[in-house]
Amino acid sequence: MPATPIRLGANCWNQYTDWPAFLDAQRRADSLGFDSIWTWDHLYPIIGSHEGPILEGYLAMAAVAQVTQRATVGLMVGANTFRNPALTAKMVTTLDHISGGRAVLGIGGAWFETEHEAYGIEFGESPGERLRWLGDALPIMRGMLHGEEPSAEGPRYRAKALRNDPPPLQKHLPILIGGSGPKVTLRLVAQYGDACNLGGSADSVRDKDAILRQHCEEVGRDEREIERTVGAGTVVIRDSRAEAERVQRAIFERNGRAEVWKDQPVGTPEDVAEHFGPYIELGFRHLICGFPSPYDEESMTRLANEVRPMLDRDAA
Fold first, then answer.
1. DSSP category for residue 258
2. CATH of the domain at 183
3. Which helix (H) or strand (E) holds 195?
4. Within-domain flag for 148
5. What is the pLDDT of residues 197-227, one digit of tens each?
């Protein structure tokens, strides 16, 4: 991957929050210079108890797009099962117009059965079936976003000469595919994705990236065309590691009494930069960091103002 400046993403969780706090957090991330802002596409909370409040993703990000200026906006990532793919393409095109050309189509196969069952949304028999649906959906969405008029006659989706008028403001509205399944998901990235989102340890990310490169070679795709992003965990920054860990525990308690995640970028600015170091060494330059409610302002600010310069030096 080419040497480029560090890009920071803020994924502000839309669970266990209220609208004013969520909107303020996204506006803050944009003003601090974060390069991308996101939220989840879920109908029930996914961290801690599912019996809590959550805001709907697309409507939330449409409002966020209206009050922000520079960061790209999208879902990390959209649930393909929730919407017809033609409707999804139309929605993200409208988001592109609302944002002035900053939309990203984040999409994945979906995984949380509880919300599907509650809302009466078909979940499929297996992860494999949901990935087949995603594989059928991606050509429709890509075609609509790229000025084509795609049709489909498959068992899952039917469409006839789909028009997407007006088209996106962006000449090439990017599709980011979430997930790291080695056999199917990463091959879909190679075939259709402009970006991917990987997670886990640096060793795991290295292995998955090697598999993606192999898929690109097999399908005749230049792997340099695909932006790699990494889900970099939930960031908490304080002057001492002990204080940062205390704040982390309080944040997870607020989020449905969730069990605290281990091995996260939590500590001093130097601790957090060290945590991200292995991903920088791998060539990853877009770190998407989670910010749960109540959207710790100190951590977000110090990540942008103190940690980013350290990462830029490491990446130079």
1. P
2. 3.20.20.30
3. strand 195-198
4. yes
5. 999 999 999 999 999 999 999 999 999 999 9
Query: Angle, to 10 degrees, between the axis of helix 308-315 and the axis of helix 269-282?
Result: 30
- In three-state secondary structure terms, 166 is coil
- What domain count does the chain have? 1
43/299 Cα distance (integer angstroms)? 27
Q: How far apart are the first and last CA of the chain?
A: 13
Q: Which domain holds residue 68?
A: 7-315
| Tokens, residue 239 | 């002057």
Asked if residues 150 and 144 have their Cβ atoms less than 8 Å apart, the reply is yes
What pLDDT score was predicted for residue 5?
86
Mean pLDDT (the chain) is: 96
Q: Positive or negative, the Cα torsion across 152, 145, 57, 80?
A: positive
Helix crossing, 19-31 with 57-67: angle to 10°? 50
Closest CA to 212 of 180, 254, 248: 180
In a domain, 1, yes or no: no
- Would you call 49 helix, strand, or coil by DSSP? coil
* Close Cβ partners of 133 (under 8 Å, ≥ 6 residues apart): 80, 81, 109, 124, 156, 157
Q: Is 306 exposed, middle or buried (0-12, 13-18, 19+ CB in 10 A)?
A: middle
Helix, strand or coil for residue 229?
A: strand
Note the pTM of the prediction, 2 decimals.
0.94
Helix ranges (H only) for 68-162 are 85-99, 113-119, 127-145
Bridging pattern class, strands 158-159 and 105-108 = unpaired
CA dihedral 124, 126, 132, 137 (to 10 degrees): 40
Phi, psi of 37 (to 5 degrees): -130, 140
Q: Which backbone phi and psi does 89 adopt, to 5 degrees?
A: -60, -40
